[in-house]
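Project outcomes to date are best conveyed with an example. Our students and postdoctoral researchers have been running inverse folding experiments weekly, and each run begins with a structure described purely in tokens. The record below, which covers 135 residues, was selected by the lab manager from last quarter's runs and is presented without edits.
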């Protein structure tokens, strides 16, 4: 991957991460439901992966998806301890990153998010490799 392709992939990944973040914040405005919770979990993995892709564009799509899933799963499993509630009590906005309680369904949603992230990252990588049109 050339320097120009990496630069384009970084920009595309940041745009995708921003989209995931905006959609995730907008979900917070909706009434809680199973669909909203699952969508939020999928977007969480997408955001983490696209941010990673922007920071390290040389990583493969599989590595991006695997690391994003591992990060999300680790945060979810951390909820089985008393650490996240203590952090959220000190800094309430941390709830958006750390969640509020363990839910095994979130792990399934993270897996779905990782698959969708893989597909999206492959597409962005191909898009970044295209030569820009010249005038």
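After processing, the design step wrote out the following sequence:
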């Amino acid at each position: 991957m050339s320097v120009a392709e990496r630069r384009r992939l970084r920009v595309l990944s940041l745009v995708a991460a921003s989209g995931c973040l905006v959609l995730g914040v907008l979900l917070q405005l909706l009434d809680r439901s199973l669909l909203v919770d699952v969508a939020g979990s999928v977007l969480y993995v997408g955001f983490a992966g696209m941010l990673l892709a922007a920071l390290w564009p040389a990583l493969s799509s599989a590595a991006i998806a695997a690391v994003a899933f591992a990060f999300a799963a680790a945060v979810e499993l951390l909820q089985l301890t008393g650490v996240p509630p203590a952090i959220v009590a000190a800094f309430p906005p941390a709830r958006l990153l750390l969640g509020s309680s363990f839910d095994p369904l979130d792990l399934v949603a993270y897996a779905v998010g990782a698959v969708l992230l893989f597909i999206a990252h492959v597409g962005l990588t191909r898009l970044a490799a295209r030569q820009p049109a010249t005038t």
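Residues 3-129 form one domain. The radius of gyration is 16 Å. The training component of this project remains on track.
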